[in-house]
Design a protein that fits this description.
heterodimer, A: 275 residues, mainly alpha, MetI-like fold, 11 helices, 81% helix, B: 337 residues, alpha/beta, D-Maltodextrin-Binding Protein, domain 2, 2 domains, five-stranded mixed β-sheet, three-stranded antiparallel β-sheet, 10 strands, 40% helix, 15% strand, globular
Amino acid sequence: MTWRRVLKGVLGPIISLVAVVAIWQAIVVWGHVAPYIAPRPLAAFRAITSNWSVLWPLTSWTIKETVYGFVAGVVLGVSFGVIMAKIPFLARTIYPVLIMSQAIPIVALALPLVLILGFSLMPKVVIVAWIVFFPVTVNVLDGLNNVDKDLLTLSRVLGASKFRTFVVIEIPGAITPLFSGLKIGATYAVTGAIIAELAASTGSSLALYQHTEAGQLNAAGVYGTTILMTAIGMSWFLLTLGAEYLCTPWRRRSVARRGWRGAKNSSAVNNKQGE
Amino acid sequence: MKKHFLRATLTAAVLASSGIVAASMTTAASAGSMGTTTVNFAYDFPGPDMELIPIVVGQDQGFYKAAGLTVKTEFPANTATTSSMLAAGSANVGFITTADMADAIASGAPLLSIANYSMSNNWTIFAKPGSKLTAANLKGKKIFSWGDNWTNTMMSFVLKHAGLTSKQITIVTASNDIPLLMNGSVDFDTSTTNYAVPGIEGADHGLKPVMFTGSQIGVPNIPIWVYAVTKAYAAAHPATAKAFLSATLAATKWAIKNPAAAVADFVKMYPNSGYTKAYSTTGWSLTIPLLTNAAGKFFVQSSSQWATLDQGLLATKQIKSAPAPTTYYTNAFVPAQ
């Protein structure tokens, strides 16, 4: 049963990936496209494997930028979302600025960041965080503002503190929109990292490597790098999806696991059974 | 190497789309609407700048029209795309660096250089105005690079001359060079005099940058930019190639003789280029001396220039083996001077 479910979940994506590669191969072969214009899929993959010793340090650096920037963006986004949900005046004040922040072209932002923060990891992390935090903020804010009002009333009637209401009712209520924001952020994070690398790099970077390969008409190298960049984005999205799966057990089962139930309730049930 | 550094991530899409464009452009040169032959000219940069002046003058002053040509200028998505546009057939004549040309040939692209644009090497290492730094102490320094093939090649000569390895310096690549230089974020900038000097002067109230060039830094005096076509285009349209160069030569000579009017033509055609008239005027005045060789000739290429270039390309492993210099070029279309 479990295997069947896993197969069901995996089969679709595999079929679509195979279809993309097949279409790519067909266009190149039937279109008689020269290898310096567009390579065959295998040539692009070979460009990765044969240059792995060069590409891996660059890829790991891009992953580092993506992860650090994503985490920073999420922390910032969640913090903004919570603060804005709790202090409506602040929300009204900050929201226009947040929207304005996303209207600034990242490329224009990159140079001042480099001038201020240098060529270290920091400006790249800031750019990725800049891209990630907005969808997270908006989704957390929407999630917290749309928690079931009846549940909040019930919580108040039962005498729950504001903090306990926040932890037990509001956070779970905002988790689904939060993960929507995280998934959007996860896919954009790698784009941010690549833009940041183009904005400023010392030595080399995955983006610069791709630019150099393009300049040398090495289409296999260009496509190979693109595959790597895509793989980073997809992996990060899948990890976020996995985290969502773990954090939202109520989507799969209506009753909490025994260990997760409150101790008070369990002892009450036991006492009742003992009577 | 030049001004800005754009998104290389677009390249894959451009390569793919240029293949589609190529399929739709089976005829390399098509008849223009007025009975002229259309030549699609691909520049080396996503936007126009003063090095385009000969083409602009050719268009505006009617040199191309007189030669029976309609020259349309195309701008690539980024600095690495012009060779692809030529190879894919979406452009007939391209403006590229000799290093891009050699790398394209090494990748199997059937390109052919039909004329030099510049005849000498004005690639230079700059320090900010008033700097005490010298080219003798590059070790441990931060050096700005546009990350292009030409700069990579020239840096191989610089490092060899300085007795350094690439690990003993820090190459910085960013979207703009002059703010980083003036801010002190990098110790040195690398660019060509005709772009960097007006830029640095403009940024620092006319103060001249400190420059290290030629034998000071061990770089050979070879041409940087060429006009290139595909071998198939050269074979199928020799008269068009020759007419293009003849008209371009006439336009170039006119622009040298009338620099202010030539810059005015450029400003008129591209009012939103982003460059001030002062920048273009200084830039063009610094470009003029580069356009002729010691004998006062335009366009003429030599085997020695390509053989010297190969040394740098081999050193940076951009090519695995050096082809015969004649693989790269022909002077067959260069007009009599």
